[in-house]
Amino acid sequence: MDENRGDEIRGTAGGTASVPLSVLDLVTVGQGRTATQALRTGVDIAKLAESRGFHRYWVAEHHSMPGVASSSPAVILAHLAAHTERIRLGSGGVMLPNHAPLVIAEQFGTLEAMAPGRVDLGLGRAPGTDGATAAALRRTERLNEGAEDFPQQLAELTRFLDDDFPDGHPYARIHAVPGPVQATSDGGVQSAARPPIWLLGSSGFSARLAGVLGLPFAFAHHFSAQNTVPALDLYRESFKPSAVLDAPYALIGVAALAADEEREARRQVLTGALSMLRLRSGRPGLVPTPEEAEAYAFSPMEREFVDSWLVNIVHGTADEVRTGLDDLVKRTGADELMITANAHSGEARLRSYELIADAYGLPVLG
């Protein structure tokens, strides 16, 4: 095993936390707010996370959703790299079928050159949007999401990142730049390092593939909680040691929001629940205000959906959130928690991460 690769993947728990804590940002846009404000909030959250010892900060690719401004993870990560110094930055994830593997290799090779040794490449198989938008992204009506397509795309991307297509391959003379080719060229001094690959999933497919390939795995517990334990079990059962990892390493994304008062936390998470209800109903929009969410007349079916959604969001005071997160670690055996705080305002999200950091006694770093 390459120890440097393993060190890039594994985090270190801070304060009294039992596992490393990280951040997943959907760059949400609330009613009355602009995408500019949402992106500035993302910078503020990344800087707060860095100053309090969170391990990594990821952004997720979504498309055609007015309330989510993270359609271009590589662009956002480049901006964040200019405003941070230590925290790992990555995608949670880039949706591989939406892009040519060479393009992703070039984008993340560029990010690695900007922020050496602190870039993660998390890859997903879903489109991150509806079928029509996926077709527009991919310029085809055939959405190649089958089991036979993703592993081939992943293998091609890995070859581009490592610059190791075998002789005779059609791509053997093609190089992702910036990348390892610059280290092996005459006079080259470029590092041959490249971002570690993570596989993301909300079911068993990517869990098994990550295990077979010996890659780290990130599970979307925040929207597929019923599948979390089975997927992590499958990942661990399927795991084969590799040059990347000698043992399984799994993080889970978890929706969590802390506030100074329990009632305020409930008000804030209800905005995200209503936003998700509208998205699932084919009516995506900006994240509503707490006032609108509280006044909304839910039908019995809508109320059932919202209640089931809120069950899987850890929310309340800082101590209540800490207890919920600790219980989740015990129940799943996750090696790392990646916390996403969805609410109408950036201020509420920032306050949540601050309160969680305080609850775990995370240090204030210079």
Helix and strand succession?
Answer: HEHEHEHEHHHEHEHEHHHEHEH
Instruction: Output the number of helix runs.
Output: 14
The profile of the biggest β sheet is: 8 strands, parallel, barrel
Report the count of strand segments: 9
Low-confidence stretches: none
| Estimated radius of gyration | 20 Å
Structural class: alpha/beta
Strand order of the largest sheet: 1-2-3-4-5-6-7-9
Q: What is the first-to-last residue Cα distance?
A: 33 Å
Shape: globular
Report the mean per-residue pLDDT as an integer.
92
Helix content: 40-55%
Measured by DSSP, the beta-strand proportion falls in: 5-15%
Q: In short, what is this structure?
A:
This protein is 43% helix and 13% strand. The protein is built from 14 helices and 9 strands. An 8-stranded parallel beta barrel has the order 1-2-3-4-5-6-7-9, surrounded by 8 helices.
Topology at a glance:
Blueprint (H helix, E strand, L loop, with lengths): L2 H7 L11 E5 L9 H17 L4 E4 L13 H9 L6 E8 L5 H14 L4 E6 L6 H8 L11 H13 L18 H4 L12 E5 L2 H10 L3 E3 L8 H11 L11 E9 L3 H19 L9 H6 L4 H12 L2 E3 L1 H15 L3 E5 L5 H14 L7
Structural account:
The structure is a single chain. This protein is an alpha/beta fold. Helix content is 43%, strand content 13%. The protein contains 14 helices and 9 strands. It has helices at 3-9, 35-51, 73-81, 101-114, 131-138, 150-162, 181-184, 204-213, 228-238, 262-280, 290-295, 300-311, 318-332, 346-359; strands at residues 21-25, 56-59, 88-95, 119-124, 197-201, 217-219, 250-258, 314-316, 336-340. Strands 1-2-3-4-5-6-7-9 form an 8-stranded parallel β-barrel, surrounded by 8 helices. Strand 3 (88-95), helix 4 (101-114) and strand 4 (119-124) form a beta-alpha-beta unit. The longest helix has 19 residues, at 262-280. The radius of gyration is 20 Å and the shape is globular. It starts with a helix and ends in a 7-residue tail after the last helix.
